[in-house]
Hints:
alpha/beta; D-Maltodextrin-Binding Protein, domain 2; 2 domains; 5-stranded mixed sheet; 17 helices
Amino acid sequence: MKRRDFLRFATSAGTGVLAMVAAPGIIRSQGSLDKMTLLIGSAPPDPAIHYYYYAKMNGFYEQEGIDVAFKTFSAETTALRGLLAGEGEVAWTGAVSTFQAIDSGAKVKCVSAITSKLDWVVVANKSVADLKQVAGKTFAVSQIGAASQIAPILMLESLGVTRDQVKWIAVGGSSSRVQALIVNKIDVTMLTPTFAVRALKEPNLHQIGDTAKDLSKFLLSLEIANTAAIESRPKVIKAFVLATARGALWGLQNPDQAAELSQKILPDVPKDDLAAVIHSYARIKYWNAAAVLPRDSFDFTYGSMAKIGDIKIKTPIKYNDFFFPDFAVGAATKLGLPMP
């Protein structure tokens, strides 16, 4: 793929996704369905969260009695702000930003944890040989304080490189970061697998870190709901968690069909690259279809953030206060899945 073609892909991937999802013949809303809005902190929708689209395109939400509207944002922190502003009942947003919001008084809880693991890789130009050489370099993140910064901070500090030794710059989502990397405006960044696959075909770029290996217990993103919505619309959110878990399980069990749907969601992404990502998710069971938040992952992520000072702890957040288990446990039980 030529550079100009890759940059076009990076900026246009996912255009028209919402129109496609709502197209006649794919999904038909019924007046009797309970309506709700899901705020998705990824635009275009990264394959990591295509299980929402699988659930919608396969009719799982309808079958559980709900009509789910998707509202997408370029950053997960923006989706969280939308949730706090009452723009939807549930948001897919980062664990890091959720911890920070709760520490500032936000009344939200995790209701499921399907993308509880990191799958990002660190990609750099070849003048940066390894993670230790990131010191003094420009590292692009989505937003300062977001998971795309916290995760590499933890990786670097384990090697003796402090955050103050790195020039952090907020660029936006993976599409914006990969563009900046290709044209040499930055030295290094963290990318999702889809963008990493394409970026690593550039002769001047290479991979220098893998979060799946180095941060296996770090929480990526979660389904977060306002406590008011949990109290006022428990039936709707319960149905949402179950249908979404079904979407994730279907994707894991049917990677060929899932890859075909993902191609419809991201028609500008090369088919083989997208299929490779979806099959990788199925092989490593990336999606936690049981939806229950692993306690050890919560302890590691929250403890790490507190340790490096990204949470100014007023009242420590406890697992049992952060995670509302009823919906996820119910989904796991109904689907016959073991819980972590």
